[in-house]
Write a structure and sequence with these properties.
Layout lengths: L1 E7 L19 H17 L5 E4 L3 H13 L5 E4 L8 H9 L7 E6 L3 H8 L12 E6 L12 E7 L8
Parallel strand pairs: 1-4, 2-3, 2-4
Antiparallel strand pairs: 1-5, 5-6
Helix pairs in contact: 1-2, 3-4
Length: 164
Amino acid sequence: MKLLFLVRHAKSSWEDPLLDDHDRPLSDRGRKDAPNMTHRLNVWQTGPQLILTSSALRAFQTAEYFAAGLDSRPKLEVCPKLYTDSASEILAVITAVPPQIEYLMVVSHNPAMNALVNQLGCHTDNVPTCGVVVLGLEVDSWQAISRKQVGAIYFDYPKRKNHT
């Protein structure tokens, strides 16, 4: 079974309204939420081997917190194609991952993340900022992903009250 960790970037800053969207950093809350979610994910179970992140600064900074804090010590790679609002573009990146990677984390943006979670059959109205959705996939290859083989096994986000 493969595990797919889908993470929406942590809360970004709007302090500088002239800053290009791609260059917006994390806000103070985002810098607090990302390490907290990393800790909560460590308590849960094995983490990813590889983190693919959008090239947007806020996503990259979020991914850095996970890469540095997860016990699994995943490799971190920037993937510009993940700076998108398209679920199908994120899925295309995932299906190109080599099959020897069993546990994969993808850090990207809404509305694409929310659409992808729903497309894979795990319904939610919203993946909040720094939300983590872990899907179990009964496949041998990332290319074989289909809705029928996917099950949601973990969903957590910073403002969730009863997390474990």
